[in-house]
Amino acid sequence: MRFLLLLAFASPAFAAHTGVVHPRTAPELSDIALFVMAAAGVWVVRRAMRARLAKTRSGQAKD
């Protein structure tokens, strides 16, 4: 069962590779999409951490 699960997750990697190597002249669309998703993730996490810190600080100010 575990093997089938791993095979299901790995199958897109096997299907995506054609075996032909092309020289890289510019970033691929997937590289740009990965960068945008990483930047969005950092932004979301920083926003959540700032909101959490602001809530903590406002709770301490009342005491």
List the helices and strands and how they pair.
Elements: H1 2-16, H2 29-62
Number of helices: 2
Q: For the residues shown, what is the average pLDDT? A: 81
Q: List segments where confidence is low: pLDDT < 50 over at least 5 consecutive residues.
A: none
Q: Roughly how many Å is the radius of gyration?
A: 22 Å
Tell me roughly what share of residues is in helical segments.
over 70%
For the termini, the CA-CA separation is 56 Å
Largest sheet: none
What is the count of β-strands?
0
Order of helices and strands: HH
Structural class, by secondary structure, is mainly alpha
> Globular, elongated, flat, extended or rod-shaped: what is the shape?
flat
Our estimate of the beta-strand percent is: under 5%
Describe the structure.
With 63 residues, the protein is an all-alpha fold. It has helices at residues 2-16, 29-62. It starts with a helix and ends with a helix.
Task: Provide a compact summary of the structure.
With 63 residues, the protein is mainly alpha-helical. Helix content is 78%, strand content 0%. The longest helix is centred in the last third of the chain and has 34 residues, at 29-62.
